[in-house]
UniProtKB/TrEMBL annotation:
InterPro entries, per the entry: TatA/B/E, TatB
Annotated localization: Cell membrane; Membrane
Annotated Gene Ontology cellular component terms: TAT protein transport complex
Major localization class: membrane
Family of this protein: Belongs to the TatB family.
Residue ranges with Low complexity bias: 110-125
Protein name: Sec-independent protein translocase protein TatB
Length: 151
């Protein structure tokens, strides 16, 4: 229950409890706290038992820890009844990204049809636009006029 509390933190809590409640009332407070924790545990176990009884025999192996998404996914990936390993292994992200990059840059991919790769007579680059070159504009030395309303 207190796996993440170190010894220094535990000593600090004890010293604060002695200072706040005093050495006379501290045993009574500890008994009350322990009684409350015990009742909460009994109530939760009773609720779990009632839920399992209401769900029926189909859910006899149901564990409430499975409601945690990480635990559920880990259990489902270990079972592999859904075939998730095949899907995960069949998806090659690097290949998909290379195909998208080639399509954006206008390169011919492996799936390009021969009719789309035939050069056009009107353009020396075969109908493709070279995105690596800057567009040629007359008068690169001149700055465009400043528009105060645009800023």
């Amino acid at each position: 229950m207190f796996n993440d509390i170190g010894p220094l933190e535990l000593v600090t809590i004890i010293v604060l409890a002695v200072l706040v409640f005093g050495p006379d009332k501290l045993p009574k407070v500890i008994q009350d706290v322990m009684r409350t924790i015990r009742k909460i545990r009994e109530f939760s176990e009773s609720a779990k038992h009632d839920i399992r009884a209401e769900l029926g025999p189909e859910f006899k192996d149901f564990e409430f820890e499975d409601l945690n998404p990480k635990t559920f996914l880990r259990k489902q990936l270990d079972n592999d009844e859904l075939g998730l390993k095949e899907i995960r292994n069949g998806f090659d992200l690097k290949k998909e990204m290379a195909e998208v990059t080639d399509a954006v840059h206008g390169r011919d991919g492996a799936s390009a049809s021969p009719s789309s790769s035939s050069p056009s007579s009107s353009s020396p680059s075969g109908g493709r636009v070279d995105m690596t070159k800057k567009p040629e504009t007359p008068g690169d030395d001149e700055r465009p006029p400043f528009d105060a309303d645009a800023t």
